[in-house]
Amino acid sequence: MMNSTDIQKKDSKYIANTYKRFPIALTAGEGAAARDPEGKEYIDFTSGIGVNCLGYADRGWADAVAAQAHKLQHVSNLYSTQPDTEVAEKLCRYTGFSKVFFGNSGAEANEGALKVARKYGIEKHGEQCNTVITLNNSFHGRTITTLSATGQDSFHQFFFPFTEGFKFVDAGDIEGLKDAVDETVCGIMIELIQGEGGVVPVDAEFVKEAACLCKEKDLVFAIDEVQTGIGRTGTFLCYEQFDVEPDVVSLAKGIGGGLPLGAVMMNEKTGDVLGFGQHGSTFGGNPVACAGASYVLDQVMKPEFLEAVRNKSEYMRKKLLEIPQIKSVTGLGLMLGAELEEGMAAGEIAGKCVEEGLLVLTAKTKLRFLPPLIISHEEIDRGIEILARVLKG
Ligand SMILES: *Cc1c(COP(=O)(O)O)cnc(C)c1O
After folding, report:
1. What spacing in Å lies between the alpha carbon of 108 and ligand 1's midpoint?
2. Confidence (pTM)
3. Which residues, including other chains, have CB under 8 Å from residue 322's CB and lie 6 or more apart?
4. Pocket of ligand 1, candidates 227, 250, 332: which has the most ligand atoms within 8 Å of its Cβ, to mutate?
5. In a designed cystine with 386, which of 158, 288, 312, 358 is the match (CB 3.0 to 4.6 A)?
6. Interval between CA 196 and ligand 1 midpoint (Å)
């Protein structure tokens, strides 16, 4: 087996320089702990950015994936298979949505959601009706169109020309939102907690108003639950806590439990917008990814599983707030952000945490925590103990 240094050397030689990686390599994991080739253990407060919701190498998930890989790893979308139908059925039954389209990532799911919004608008209200309102400080993905949808100037560089047809408003600015809705607008797409934007929850009244406007003006209300979905915020989907009913929801990250899978969920209003030949994805609904997802959904949809997430959230929030250098904690469930004392750089702290055996994320000026949903109280304690030590300096 290669050691850490060899892996990192080969990585920087052959892999495109798009990620500023921490100087470690990981080769195995169990629960909420990962290991490097030398056997050093890292408590994982990241789940691979909200992906490994059942932690590393969950036995049931791995068995489901392996069994499917031994049977049928892929067929084209010209034929039906069992695993994707099961995942779609579980999603629809739980949420009340009527149709699911499967892709492979969050950006791809949002592309699907945007196509639904545009086609709906154009068909219902005419060709001029093709603009989607998104929020300033949002993040919706890395394709040219989802970069366009992302309400942060830093993402609107280098790759011109970007896709037209987006308008941005500030989260919470109800008047601004009302003003932005004109005859060119076909939909509104928002995150409920802006994850990459700094774990910033969006005001509930604003979200309700957005939903109302969409109903009133017959627009598509789309929620990007790529990061907040699949139990991450303590309910199966985050919108359950906002008392709204979106027309479209995009999912990815946690749904595959670690394999690439994305989904667009559509309700009765939007479920038949995309017709034959109007959307597709070679790998979308891959049987192996869906066999894993089906297992993930069985676990995460259990009321006691979600209750445990909420309990651990309260526990972790309380523990974080006991650390003197943490000024505030934002977020819901196991999607938490910590604002640090003036002058403390989150990136630097994250680097020191890694050295000490704790994986954490950053979002803007904050530390961000997305531990696996199955993390134990004891693992939370171990991680918090490392964090407190690092912050103390
Ligand atoms: C991560 C993320 C995306 C992009 O997902 P990818 O799988 O990286 O394409 C989109 N929206 C939100 C809210 C995200 O957190």
Report:
1. 9
2. 0.98
3. 388
4. 227
5. 358
6. 9
How do the residues of the chain divide into helix, strand and coil, expressed in percent and rounded to 5?
A: 40, 20, 40
pLDDT bin (cut points 50, 70, 90) of residue 257 is: very high
CA angle 339, 244, 210 (to 5 degrees): 75
CA distance 328 to 343: 15
Preceding amide of 303 cis, omega within 30: no
pLDDT band at 330, cuts 50/70/90? very high
> How remote is the CA of residue 392 from the centroid of ligand 1, in Å?
33
Mapping DSSP to helix (H, G, I), strand (E, B) and coil, where does residue 107 land? helix
Atom 15 in ligand 1: residue holding the nearest Cα: 227
Residue 15: is it exposed, middle or buried by C-beta count within 10 angstroms (0-12/13-18/19+)? Answer: exposed
Give the β-pairing of 41-44 and 33-35. antiparallel
340-381 tens-digit pLDDT: 999 999 999 999 999 999 999 999 999 999 999 999 999 999
Ligand 1 atom index nearest CA of 194: 13
CA of 364 to the centre of ligand 1 (A): 16
| Helix (H) or strand (E) run with residue 340 in it | strand 335-340
Residues in contact with ligand 1 (CB, 6 Å cut-off): 105-107, 110, 139-141, 191, 195-196, 224, 226-227, 252-253
Q: Specify the pLDDT at position 191.
A: 98
Give the total residue count for the chain: 393
pLDDT at 80 over 90: yes
> Which residue's structure tokens are 């994707």?
84
